[in-house]
Amino acid sequence: MLTGLYETYKGTMKAQVVSKSGILQLEIKDKYTDMIISPIPEGVEGEVKTFYTVQAGGKLTVEFIVKGDKVDLIYERYRLKRVGSI
Fold it and tell me: Of 1, 6, 10, 76, which is least surrounded by CB within 10 A?
């Protein structure tokens, strides 16, 4: 349900969410970044699916907001919308 292609407004940041062996991977690319993150599930009930990752020695929340067939991804200060499937 969460896998797909995501991007910010005007496509300044793009991400892919893929499932590898049942684990989500978030692949983020922009002009400054090229990284792969494996978010760890925290709360996956309801419309807001909460995950976390550890970055720079701290816990960083990653959220997916599901409303019908629309999914938004909140990562750091960015809001990315699912724009397609993989």
Answer: 10
Domain 4-84, CATH number (from 2.40.128.210, 2.30.110.10, 3.40.50.720, 3.40.50.2000): 2.40.128.210
- The 10 Å Cβ neighbour count of residue 54 is 10
What's the whole-number mean pLDDT along residues 51-73?
Answer: 93
By the 8 A CB rule, do 7 and 80 touch?
yes
Which residues touch 41 (CB under 8 Å, ≥6 apart)?
A: 49, 50, 51
Beta strand pairing call for 58-67 and 23-29: unpaired
Compute the average pLDDT of residues 53-74: 93
* 71-84 pLDDT tens trace: 999 998 899 999 99
